[in-house]
Amino acid sequence: MKRALSPSTNATGLGAAAAAIYAAVIMVWHATHHAGVIDPQVLVAAIGAAAFVYARFRVTPIADPRDGNGKPLVPAPPPRTGPPVPSNVTVVPGQPPPPPANGPRM
Q1: Rounded CA gap, 95 and 60, in Å?
Q2: Is the pLDDT of residue 3 over 70?
Q3: Is the dihedral of CA 48, 52, 58, 64 positive or negative?
Q4: Which helix (H) or strand (E) holds 106?
Q5: Helix (H, G, I), strand (E, B) or coil at 43
Q6: 65, 72 in Cβ contact below 8 A?
Q7: pLDDT for the residue numbered 1
Q8: What is the pTM of this model?
Q9: Where are the domains positioned within the chain?
């Protein structure tokens, strides 16, 4: 089964991006020129973008991602469990706490 891995370097990803950008540009153009924002051009572009995205996810299943040679991609490492890592941070009253040891969560 053929797989499309990078949305920026294959036809389905580029088609989805182009259709979405086209729809957005037409909507902004119509809004700035006091016309109806939703019109047939925008609907066709939005449906086209959705079809390209659907095709990309049908070609590259999320449950079984593989590289271009058919080899499974490396899975993410399991989350760390156990006691927290010791730290040399001193907490001073009145100051905000330091960020977590493994980086800020957003």
Answers
A1: 48
A2: no
A3: negative
A4: none
A5: helix
A6: yes
A7: 43
A8: 0.44
A9: 11-59
